[in-house]
């Protein structure tokens, strides 16, 4: 029995059913997805949190049921706003040395903008999911070729070399590195302060949803590794597309929504609607707080609040499909994009959707502050933009402060397991990976002796 129909619970169900285990997934909400939800308003698809994904996430390729997932990538790298101008920064894919990184940085400075390299297309052909090119224009107005905010050519080469090395470091080596808060660790990496403050800090804040960069440096390295080795992207059709695909490709009758679990044991769950349901094992795949309510004693982490503001206009900024960061950090918006240029399915024809993310507690004058900041970031008036929705999620992303255990136990005892992004990294990759670890433990226990208990439960729900 799996409690919770977020991406962790649904991917666990796929792994178990593929091994012949009968599974029932119970979800208290009326729909699947958990925090990966999308609101639909007048033809717009508006993510409530909209965490950034990467094509480099291994579990997007390895998770059963995601073969049909379509990812829409942002323009390569990111677009930085600093000193009143836009600066494009791209990871030097394929460079394998400092010398190669220097050549790559120089090539990026002179190459036509918005043209994806052959490496991405080759990777997309190998992946289980599909990566489609951005549909909107990718030319960016007023893109500066000057040094700010990264420094000169040598500073850029050093950054390129650092990202290249990181992209090829095995994960286990990253996890063995000394651990500090990410903000402190950046200063020890040998990069110029201008590069750190103007690029790495705003980038990591966007990737980790942590503006103060208190996150473990190991988690930050994993995020930078994914950025250097892939493309930032979003699921086509909204964040909910990923869990809905997982649910849709499970055997009919596996997922049961509107069922609230009130207690769990190793051989049963009790629900408010149907009483006790017997089973051979229980996997808790809820968020951290709900899991702790069912199993007192489980750790509840702190959380990063996230607010997403959605605007529409018929005259969009000319930033194409770029993810725009503020190198100056001069307002509440951490990152923003004309998301309909990345994924046209998110807005009706003739309208543009601009989605902007505010990290941390939002200001009291949120609407005014965001509009003012966006006008400066995009270099265009925003007073005529229509606000579609403001989504504030107080417990959006579990915090990962140093020291952080990236492999929290998923097996509590024989017959009782837990998974979710709070047991791994606070990303979709972490949620899917924790489900992999949990199902490996379940299958090992089930296979050890046929039954993990002295007597098999009654056959009312022979499920894992």
Automatic annotation (TrEMBL):
It comes from Streptomyces sviceus (strain ATCC 29083 / DSM 924 / JCM 4929 / NBRC 13980 / NCIMB 11184 / NRRL 5439 / UC 5370). This is Oxidoreductase. InterPro entries: Amino_oxidase, FAD/NAD-bd_sf. One of its GO terms (molecular function) is oxidoreductase activity. Residues 7-443 form the Amine oxidase domain.
